[in-house]
Amino acid sequence: MKKNILLVLMTMTISLMALAQNELLIPDTLSGTNFDLTLQTGTYPFLEGPVTNTMGVNGNILGPTLLMNQGDDVNIFIHNQLPDTTTIHWHGMHVSPENDGGPHTLILSGETWNPSFTVMDKAGTYWYHPHLHRKTDEHVTKGIAGIVIVRDAEEAALALPRTYGVDDFPLVIQTKHFDENNQVVTHSNNDNVVMVNATIDANLNVPAQVVRFRLLNGSSQRVFNIGLSDDTPFYQIASDGGLLQESLQLSRLQLPPGARAEILIDFGGMEGQNLQLMSYASEFPNGIYGATHPGMMSGMTMDGYDPNPINGADFVLMQFTVVEQGANPVLNIPSSLVEVNPIPESSATRTRTLNFTPEVMGFNQLNGIFLINGQSFNMDVINDTVTLGDTEIWTLHNQSAIAHPFHIHDVQFFVLDRNGAAPPPSEQGRKDVILVKPQETVRFIAKFEDFASEEVPYMYHCHMLVHEDGGMMGQFLVVEDAAGTELNGKDDRMVSVFPNPVTSGRIHVQCKNSMDAYELLDSTGRIIIDGKQGSAVKGNFDIEVADFPAGIYLLKIYSGASLYTKKLFVSNQ
Ligand code: C2O
Ligand code: CU
Ligand code: CU
Q1: Which CATH superfamily is domain 345-477 in?
Q2: Does ligand 1 have an atom closer than 6 angstroms to the CB of 461?
Q3: Is the CB of 131 inside a 6 Å radius of any atom of ligand 1?
Q4: How far apart are CA 475 and CA 495, in angstroms?
Q5: Closest CA to 53 of 172, 194, 144, 182
Q6: pLDDT at position 495, please?
Q7: 492-570: CATH, from 3.30.70.1070, 2.60.40.3080, 1.10.357.10, 2.40.320.10
Q8: CA 20 to 30 Å from 162, out of 61, 122, 262, 466?
């Protein structure tokens, strides 16, 4: 060990010696099928001087890595001990809208949310993070983000490194902006502190063998251009939604916010050496958050963006120090991985187009909000309705001056083309985030299977959290029969409520049969309106919800021997 350190010191450059190296934090793991997660506030010593107020899961910062197996029925308890409402979303995972944790599925302060679902995803790297409308950036940037590793039989059959914390590591790459009191500034364009797993100037000792890294760009806006020092090659084995067909030798990998990639690095024969994980952002063209100029034209500025030494510069994300080989090392990079079957374009039955535009055209557009099809997100508006089982092609047109990382819930998609040309091999696997550059047109294909709901929508949005919070988001329902999507228009539905979710005023209830009584319960099961005592109404009635705290309510309607229930969503905008 002493000898290694000496070698390391001798090979380090002067500038690197100036960096104080901190040991990379490796989040704990939780496994099994029952998960208990507590969202809490805390503090973390990011910088010299005052500690930073943070949010974390089962701790002060980030969250445990959840190890799940495909096919498992998992049951998760999320206790919200934050002083704020939030939600938790399973980014990239294929779950029902009720379990998806979007902005409608509120977890009020002091309450517990209990999603449970079957893990249907392919082996891969997914993540969980808050998704409260207008506060996603605050909750994520203050520290709530965790990795989900899904395993399956296909992956287990390959000779890949998979011992967590030994030859398989999650790397949550983030930049943050701290104020003069070392507090996190949210909705900031001046993120100048780089960290991996919440560790600034991180070093990880890695064995001299093939090691697997699960990269997540957990930053609020910044795109990274991943590479290794001296252009050392690495091998991409997975994109957002699982393994690629074959490992790809790369020297650069573009990683937009929200996206994941699994890579292998062969440290064989490098014992005693250092290697840096870099972002080569000097190579970015204008029009990407992270380039010298974030807008297409150099005159387009963004408040707070300049000066920042990492914009348009090559910078170190973290360092690897190669130490001796471990037991049972993987020594070779497997070339072929799994069979990937892209969805054929001919199987699509419907197309949709989403246009991204700035609200205010022109040179100052980067300081405004961005719209999708001319609209800003509205909790009460369903933007799209998809029929369950359909395969669709979505065309994304970026008519703004900055690149947007588009993300969609529910599905993994395949990119068909970028401006008419096939995507690079690195984007030919399953994806749930795609960076759409200024003036670019990207088409993807996806199949909407398994889960339908006429009440709870899925989201699509820009994963730059400042854009998302600003309203660059839409919502879609997946329904069994697209003809019956109006909330009150279907014959076989006895009870309908609208609008739902409701943001203010009243909710209107329509009951087709005679009704004997109704009850309204809050999310703890307490009856808050008892309509049993002679107040039973037949047909239509309204419930005043203006004074109700935000949350989920349950409406029960008794009609003869039947009981109908409806979930009501009240938000507090
Ligand atoms: Cu990672 Cu809708 O988000
Ligand atoms: Cu998501
Ligand atoms: Cu955006």
Answers
A1: Cupredoxins -  blue copper proteins (2.60.40.420)
A2: yes
A3: yes
A4: 23
A5: 182
A6: 74
A7: 2.60.40.3080
A8: 61
Residues contacting residue 221 through CB under 8 Å, at least 6 positions apart: 189, 191, 257, 289, 464, 465, 466, 467
Domain with CATH 2.60.40.3080 in the chain: 492-570
Cα–Cα distance list, 490 to 25, 454, 457, 495 (Å): 54, 11, 18, 10
CA-proximal residue: ligand 1, atom 3 (nearest): 91
What pLDDT, on the 0 to 100 scale, is given for residue 538? 55
What is residue 137's three-state secondary structure?
helix
Contact of 372 with 473, CB cutoff 8 Å: yes
User: 408: CA distance to ligand 2 center in Å?
Assistant: 6
3-state secondary structure 221-235: CCCEEEEEHHHCCEE
Which residue has tokens 């529910």?
410
Closest CA to 135 of 154, 116, 157, 107: 107
Here the tokens at position 459 are: 């989201």
Q: Which ligand is nearest to the CA of 471?
A: 3
For position 48, what pLDDT does the model report? Answer: 95
CA atoms within 13 A of residue 109's CA, in its CB half-sphere:
7
Tokens linked to 528: 């808050």
Tell me what pLDDT residue 8 has. Answer: 46
Q: Is the CB of 133 under 6 A from ligand 1?
A: no
* DSSP track, 207-258: ESSEEEEEEEE--SS--EEEEEGGG--EEEEEETTEEEEEEEEES-EEE-TT
Domain with CATH 2.60.40.420 in the chain: 345-477
Question: What is the per-residue pLDDT across 237-270, written as a single tens digit (0 to 9) for each?
Answer: 999 999 999 999 999 999 999 999 999 999 999 9
Low-confidence ranges of the chain (pLDDT < 70): 1-20, 481-494, 503-504, 512-513, 532-539, 560-562, 572-573
Instruction: Check if the beta carbon of residue 234 is closer than 8 Å to that of residue 264.
Output: yes
| Res 534: pLDDT | 46
